Predict the 3D structure of the following.
Amino acid sequence: MTTLDDLPIRDDLRGLTPYGAPQLDVPVRLNTNENSYPVPEPVVEAIGKAVAAELRDLNRYPDRDALALRADLADYLGHGLTVDHVWAANGSNEIQQQLLQAFGGPGRTALGFTPAYSMHPLLALGTGTGWIPAARDADFGLTVTDAVAQVRAHRPDVVFLCSPNNPTGTALDPAVVEGVLAEAPGMVIVDEAYAEFARPGTVSALAVLPKHPRLVVTRTMSKAFGFAGGRLGYLAADPAVVQAVQLVRLPYHLSALTQAAARAALAHRDALLGTVTAIMEQRDRIVADLRARGHRVADSDANFVLFEVGGDQAGPWRALLDAGVLVRDVGLPGWLRVTAGTPAETDAFLSAMEKLS
Ligand SMILES: Cc1ncc(COP(=O)(O)O)c(C=O)c1O
């Protein structure tokens, strides 16, 4: 049988394993920061109708520029954004890949402040972009001074900021975004996949877009909208950035079914986003409960919580799994990450944690 090693695969891909959290069939799955609430029935019906209306025309390619969907996304974001400022793709992963294809690539570099979203370096790898792992503080914070100094030292073509940051959960001080924009010679991507869960008063980088043509804010419908299976991510930026990604996107990358389903979901955004407050309550409950039991816990503006278990985190991860609760080992020694879901899921997680200690 032929193995990967027998193929003339790129040297930099040799020996690697594909990215992915375990998809295990356990009662309580809290490891990929999905929205635990199923799509409400009226929205299921609306999406069904919208998708059905496309079926007869599937002999034709979809709208290559997804204009109607982009207009709906701009309307959702507000901030005076229009269809020309917004671009959409199959998840924000694809958006970020397109950004690296356009602004990174061979001979160029991208920098991120680790620990952050683990796909950023993998997207750099896949696009032949050199990856520079910059550091956060010991308590996972990031100050303007540190961020700017590291950007100055490396002068990367692309900087990834993540706010709220995955896996730590904390939103960035807007001064970090401003400081990095002032120092960075190239593009600055702020990954705001979890923006809708941020605590009151948190400022989105969308607010400063008009001042910064090299700033890109990426968002997704996978988290707050509960639309992870629909695969829809998007960016907001200067219209010139949208023109740049159009140079590298595959033609017709976003199927007519995806566009129709996402538009129907956006039309019902109040129903879909109706779960956000309940999820934030569970998030705050997890933080408070674990702190009360003496765990160190990172502040969270997202739908997940990073908490310290001490020692080798693999043991507690396994013990939680044995209790039917799947959380995420993000590879941070002594720490685990849990998604905030329904009250019943929090109950199951917290009682499994109680048995650990
Ligand atoms: C920080 C961050 N960005 C982007 C994504 C990717 O989301 P999607 O490709 O589903 O839009 C995730 C998913 O977990 C994430 O945590």
Summary: The chain has a mean pLDDT of 96. The first helix runs from residue 41 to 52.
